[in-house]
Automatic annotation (TrEMBL):
Residues 1-21 form the signal peptide. Residues 43-117, 126-183, 192-205, 214-227, 236-337, 346-403, 412-428, 436-469, 478-536, 543-574 have a biased composition (Basic and acidic residues). Residues 575-585 have a biased composition (Basic residues). It comes from Mycena belliarum. The keyword Signal applies. The keyword NAD does not apply. Keywords: Signal. Residues 43-591 are annotated as: Disordered. This is Uncharacterized protein.
Length: 591
């Protein structure tokens, strides 16, 4: 009985509420409308009209399926929907204002600005933001697409693009981005997953093109002749597989992905700007700047940053590799590359890095694992080349004749297996790995600067300075820092290898070494150190356990050679004829 009563009350209440919700026509309202001045009309507020300068539509679902601004739209057009905001957006000729589309899902499937687009067009969706974005000739403004998932599948600016084009998606941002001749502005693509698969700016690109995705950002990025602007690709996974700027690239080209950022990056002749690739996993597999590189070339991956990096003749800028995973497998700057190319990986940063003749700038590769396997600067390298990986940073680093700059490789595990600067090396060459930093480092004729390798365990097994070494050569590794390091005649710069494990197995400076040569490892620092004829620096060894068993400096040793290890510092130290240096015994030394 109680249930029936309650149910009846509920039904009555529902009927009353429904009846009250029905709109009823009122004469007073109609009279007021006539008094104001005319009949009421229904207006669609979303309909875009000619001459609208600030039209904003902020819907949540299926906001704009197709929005096509015509010729003469000069204001800002922003569409900030959440789902399926813009399926197709195609600005025509003469669009000068900023067009922002900031949807979250499926924002822009196709966006293709035509000739004469001068304003900034931004698309900031999260899922499948921009599948195809191709600005044509004369695009001078900023075009930004900042989606999170599948932002830009294809972006190809044509001839005359002068403004900045940025695509910042998170997943699949840019599959193909190919700026043509005359691109002068900055084009940035900052996606997180598969941002840029192919990005190849052509002749005359002067602006900055940046692609900063996290996963598979740039598979191929190859700026051609005359690229002067900055092209940055900063993805996290597979950011740049191939990036090859050609002749005349003067601007910044940066690719900073986290996973597989740059597989191949090869700037050609005349590249003068900065080319940076900063991925975390597999950032740069191949990066080869050619002759004339004067800017900074940095690759900063975390894992497998640089497998091969070989700058050629005339490289004068900084080349840094700082990726996290597989950043640079091969980086080879060619003739005329003047810009900076950076790849910053942490694991296996640089497997092979070999700057050629005329390299004057800094080349740094700062990965953590297997940073540089082979780094071989050639004749004329004057700048700094740094590779700072943590695991297996540099397996082989061999600067050739005329290297004057500083080449640093700072990995933690197996940083430098072989590093051998040749004749005329005057700059700094540093390799600072933690594990197995330098297995072989042999600077040749004319080495005058400081060569340091600072490992903690088994730092230097063999260190033999040769003819003409005038600078300080220090080896401060933690584990097996330097297996072999042999500077030749005429090396004048600093060569430092600061690894923790297995830094330098052998380091042998030749005749004429006048600077400081220090090896400060903790375990098994220096097994044998034999400076040759003409060594002018001091040789002091301050170890804690088994410091000096035998030390054999040759004729003419005048400088300092210090090895400060903690465990089995020197197994052999014995002074020879003509050594007027300071020979100090630390612990358990026998001369």
């Amino acid at each position: 009985m109680l249930f029936k009563k309650n149910f009846l009350v509920f039904v009555v209440a529902a009927v009353l509420s429904t009846v009250s919700a029905i709109p009823v026509q009122s004469r007073s309202v109609a009279d007021v409308a006539r008094a104001v001045g005319g009949a009421t009309t229904k207006i669609d507020a979303r309909a875009p009209r000619r001459g609208d300068s600030g039209s904003r539509s902020r819907g949540r679902r299926n906001e704009i399926e197709a929005r096509i601004p015509r010729h003469g739209d000069s204001g800002r057009s922003r569409s900030r929907g959440r789902r399926d905001e813009i399926e197709a957006r195609t600005p025509r000729h003469g669009d000068s204002g900023r067009s922002h589309s900031r949807g979250r899902r499926d924002e822009i499937e196709a966006r293709t600005p035509r000739h004469g687009d001068s304003g900034g067009s931004r698309s900031r969706g999260r899922r499948a933001e921009v599948e195809a974005r191709a600005p044509r000739h004369g695009d001078s403004g900023r075009s930004r697409s900042r989606g999170r998932r599948d932002e830009i599948e294809a972006r190809s600016p044509r001839h005359g693009d002068s403004g900045r084009s940025r695509s910042r998606g998170r997943r699949g941002e840019i599959e193909a981005r190919t700026p043509r001749h005359g691109d002068s502005g900055g084009s940035r693509s900052r996606g997180r997953r598969a941002e840029v698969e192919a990005r190849a700016p052509r002749h005359g690109d002067s602006g900055g093109s940046r692609s900063r995705g996290r996963r598979a950002e740039l598979e191929a990025r190859a700026p051609r002749h005359g690229d002067s602007g900055g092209s940055r690709s900063r993805g996290r996974r597979a950011e740049v597989e191939a990036r090859a700027p050609r002749h005349g690239d003067s601007g910044r080209s940066r690719s900073r992905g986290r996973r597989d950022e740059i597989e191949a990056r090869a700037p050609r002749h005349g590249d003068s700007g900065r080319s940076r690739s900063r991925g975390r996993r597999g950032e740069i597999e191949a990066r080869a700047p050619r002759h004339g590189d004067s800017g900074r070339s940095r690759s900063r991956g975390r894992r497998d940053e640089i497998e091969a990096r070989s700058p050629r003749h005339g490289d004068s800028g900084r080349s840094r590799s700082r990726g996290r995973r597989g950043e640079i497998e091969a980086r080879t700057p060619r003739h005329g590359d003047s810009g900076g190319s950076r790849s910053r990986g942490r694991r296996a940063e640089v497997e092979a890095r070999a700057p050629r003749h005329g390299d004057s700038g800094r080349s740094r590769s700062r990965g953590r694992r297997a940073e540089i396997e082979a780094r071989t600067p050639r004749h004329g390298d004057s700048g700094r080349s740094r590779s700072r990986g943590r695991r297996a940073e540099i397996e082989a680093r061999t600067p050739r004749h005329g290297d004057s700059g500083g080449s640093r490789s700072r990995g933690r595990r197996a940083e430098i297996e072989a590093r051998a600067p040749r004749h005329g090396d005057s700059g700094r060459s540093r390799s600072r790995g933690r594990r197995a930093m330098i297995e072989a480092r042999a600077p040749r004729h004319g080495d005058s600067g400081r060569s340091r390798s600072r490992g903690r365990r088994a730092e230097i097994e063999v260190r033999t300075p040769r003819h003409g070494d005038s600078g300080g050569s220090r080896s401060r590794g933690r584990r097996a820092e330097i297996e072999a390091r042999a500077p030749r005649h005429g090396d004048s710069g600093r060569s430092r290898s600061r690894g923790r494990r297995g830094e330098i197995e052998a380091r042998a400076p030749r005749r004429g070494d006048s600077g400081r040569s220090r090896s400060r490892g903790r375990r098994g620092e220096i097994e044998a150190r034999a400076p040759r004829r003409g060594d002018s620096g001091r040789s002091g060894s301050r170890g804690r356990r088994d410091a000096i068993k035998a030390r054999a400096p040759r004729r003419g040793d005048s400088g300092r050679s210090r090895s400060r290890g903690r465990r089995s510092d020197f197994e052999a130290r014995s002074p020879r004829h003509g050594s007027h240096s300071h020979s100090r015994r630390a612990v358990g030394a026998s001369i």
